[in-house]
Design goal:
2 domains, Spore Coat Polysaccharide Biosynthesis Protein SpsA, Chain A, about 325 residues
Length: about 325
């Protein structure tokens, strides 16, 4: 197998046939300037136009350009996941195919990695998109993601990002979770820096993004928060909730008995007693669910042979066989 390139550039593509020729020229010009071996993985996410035909022309013209064609339109997260799985570079970069990201920013971002960072995240500081349906929802989502994950970024939605490969290999991405990759890397201790990048208005093709993505982001954010806080200890979430509900049920039952013996109000006349029984049963079920989740997470790590930690650096210690 040929020596691994320094950089793997991933480009998810869906119905961008008219942009691909210009994209190929811009990417080639930008990456040729770094003076290091690179590869470009064009991932056709089930395009229904002539995108794959244009991709094949580009791949035939330049050997650094390679292609993956997915069976149907799975979405940007799946397309990036496919690219990550096939990338061989020590650094993995991502960029959109609509020409709104500028490939000329990549060499400067690559130099930023050399300063000791593990992730360089693009920031569309002067974004050329509509305010109401694009920039405003994006700003709200960025604020929410930053507060929930603790990884503060101005622009999670900017696809133009560079990662050291060890921080993104092995992730299983679903839904709209590609935008949370910096947060996942941050959970592993990655040193993250944000860098303003050029952003251009779309001149050809149709945007595939809409305001409905904001609601999907909120739902996926719940999963990300769970994976950060409770992935290896789910009993803390389910058990804590179960104990809280059980305690509330006990308090309501005690109050019911207090009314019975102090004020002579029969239990059958106090609906609160039935609510306390519901809380007690729900709390018990949550605790059992937490125990089941603990068993499942241990089976997951054992079957995958995957440790519950990431080692950044080793001194005089070999990787376990």
């Amino acid at each position: 197998m040929a020596e691994a390139p320094l950089l793997s550039l991933l480009i998810p593509i869906f119905n961008e046939a008219e942009n691909i020729p210009s994209l190929g020229e811009e990417v080639h010009a930008a990456l040729s300037s770094i003076g290091k071996p690179y590869e470009v993985l064009l991932v056709d996410d089930g395009s229904r136009d002539a995108s794959f035909a244009e991709i094949k022309k580009l791949a035939a013209k330049r050997p650094e350009f390679k292609a993956l064609r997915l069976g149907t339109n799975y979405g940007q997260t799946a397309a990036l996941a496919a690219g990550i799985d096939h990338a061989r570079g020590k650094v993995v970069a991502c960029i959109d195919a609509d020409l709104q990201n500028d490939p000329k920013d990549i060499p400067a971002m690559l130099a930023k990695l050399d300063e000791g960072f593990d992730v360089v995240s693009g920031w569309r500081k002067h974004r050329k998109d509509a305010w109401i349906n694009r920039r405003l929802p994006s700003a709200m989502a960025n604020w929410l993601i930053s507060k929930v994950t603790g990884v503060e970024l101005h622009d999670y939605g900017c696809t133009l990002k560079l990662y050291r490969s060890e921080y993104i290999k092995g992730f299983r991405l679903y839904g709209e979770m590609h935008r949370f990759i910096p947060a996942f890397a941050g959970f592993m201790g990655a040193r993250i820096v944000e860098m303003p990048v050029n952003h251009r208005a779309r001149t050809r093709g149709v945007s595939k993004y809409g305001i409905t993505r904001t609601f999907k982001v909120v739902l996926d954010l719940m999963t990300v928060k769970f994976m950060d806080e409770y992935m290896t200890k789910p009993i803390y979430l389910f058990g804590g909730g179960g104990l809280s509900m059980g305690a509330l049920g006990a308090l309501m039952a005690a109050y019911t008995l207090y009314n019975k013996f102090t004020h002579g109000i029969f239990v059958k006349d106090q609906p609160l007693f039935q609510v306390s029984i519901f809380f007690a049963l729900a709390g018990f079920q949550l605790i059992l669910l937490g125990l089941l989740a603990e068993i499942l997470i241990r089976v997951y790590y054992d079957m995958k042979g995957k440790p519950a930690y990431y080692v950044r650096e080793r001194l005089g210690v070999d990787e376990p066989s």
